[in-house]
Amino acid sequence: MNQYTAGELVTVSTESDDPNVPSGFTDTVTGQPADPGVVTLKWSISINDVPGETTVWVYSAFSGNITRLGTGIYEAEIDTTAAPGVYTYEWVGTDGVQAINDEQFLVEAAPL
């Protein structure tokens, strides 16, 4: 699990560093990179094993939370200011385009 310090902007992406996991959204029939009709990023913070509320961002040219980098490739920056804990996030696509698996990262409190 990747670790960060509270206060960092953490970039999460549909791209994968794991060669066994498809990079970006893919069409469930052809396996080729594809853009979903709707791209959603869901994320939450667990503090001391207590899950927090889920934040939901939906891609739109006007929202600014999610950026499209190319076909099937999206990224977002999560602000971890004053929020140490375990962050869990999931990318979700619609219209026969495969969702990306849940991922996690740890944010530790900033040193004084």
Structure explained in plain terms:
The chain is elongated, with a radius of gyration of 15 Å. The chain has 112 residues and is mainly β. It has one domain (2-108): Sandwich (Immunoglobulin-like). The model has no long low-confidence stretch (mean pLDDT 89). The strands form 2 sheets. Strands 1, 3, 4, 5, 8 and 9 form a 6-stranded mixed sheet that branches. Strands 2-7-6 form a 3-stranded antiparallel sheet, with no helix packed on it. The chain has strands at residues 2-5, 9-13, 39-47, 50-51, 55-58, 66-70, 73-79, 85-93, 103-108. It is 0% helix and 46% strand.
Radius of gyration: 15 Å
Q: What's the domain count?
A: 1
Q: What would CATH call the class?
A: Mainly Beta
Count of DSSP H/I helices: 0
Query: Which range best describes the helical content: under 10%, 10-25%, 25-40%, 40-55%, 55-70% or over 70%?
Result: under 10%
Question: What descriptors fit this protein?
Answer:
mainly beta, 9 strands, 112 residues, Immunoglobulin-like, single chain
Draw up the topology in text.
Elements: E1 2-5, E2 9-13, E3 39-47, E4 50-51, E5 55-58, E6 66-70, E7 73-79, E8 85-93, E9 103-108
Parallel strand pairs: 1-9
Antiparallel strand pairs: 2-7, 3-4, 3-5, 3-8, 6-7, 8-9
Summarize it.
The protein has 112 residues and is mainly β.
